Amino acid sequence: MLKFEQDTFLEYVGKEAEAKRGEIEKIVDDISKKGYQNIFLIGSGGTIAMMYPFEFIFKSNSSLEVHAEIAAELLVMNNRHLTKDSVCIFASVTGTTKETVAAAQFCKGKGATTIGLVAKEGTPLAESVDYIISTGNEKYSFDTFFMYLQLLTLRFIHNHDEFPQYEKFAEELALLPQGMVNAIKAFDSRAEQFAIKHKDTGYHMLVGAGNLWGNTYSYAMCILEEMQWIKSKSIHAAEFFHGTLELVEEDTSVILFIGEDETRPLVERVERFAEKITKELFILDTKDYPLEGISEEFRKFFAVNLNWALTGRISVYLERERNHSLDIRRYYRKMDY
Asked: Deepest of 103, 237, 241, 300, by most Cβ within 10 A of its Cβ?
């Protein structure tokens, strides 16, 4: 398959994440033992989008107070919930995202406990936090970050006596990378055909909700807009019928990310509407892909990992069909702004 190294994926996303399980659990256990008041999930661009699924998981599975915040906004908003008793979790693949590094330093200055997810140690973010969780390599880092955040989130909830299934969950999480590989293989031809068909499409609507809202936002902004310079709009399924529906026409590309959590009916409602109007409806439903060894009760959590891996296949084929590298930028990190 184009630009997919199965053995490397399983090594980095599978074995690496499993190897970090004990380290992650100790971090959470130490913080839980010390005590804290709330949890902040902080990032910029793709990494704040990465945090949204876990904000949803916290809110729908725990009474813990949690806030997902854009790093740059946190620096200026005087958030009164951020105190020395907060736990702040950050992510940056390069460890150099200015706003995220500044936010980590700001939170640490408040006395908060800080955790950083990075690809490599020794980077500015890694040096600005109390606890570092590193992938050791930038390749497939987002996939690995998702695995780390699964462990962090559910361990915090478990320690709050709200997720007794944690041990079973963590054991099944180790099986997820192979299930993702199998799903990638099954989806690959669909991804290629989408890219061939839409290589010249100038605008896409992306709709999602719940655990997949972050991926919806990220794929529109970070992939289609930043990496492919394609105009797009991410729309929350719960808000779709409050404006955006009026822009759907017969040839409008509408992409639905359907997951398996409580918000699934919201996206299915958009599907029922869109299929009556547009001929360009594309549905990516995680329920279509079996995950061997994964319990039904945990699939809703793992939809975010699965969706991210599958959309990555669309990206590499768009890159090929459009002859537009995913690495090229006009402005981002190219000029001062």
From this structure: 103
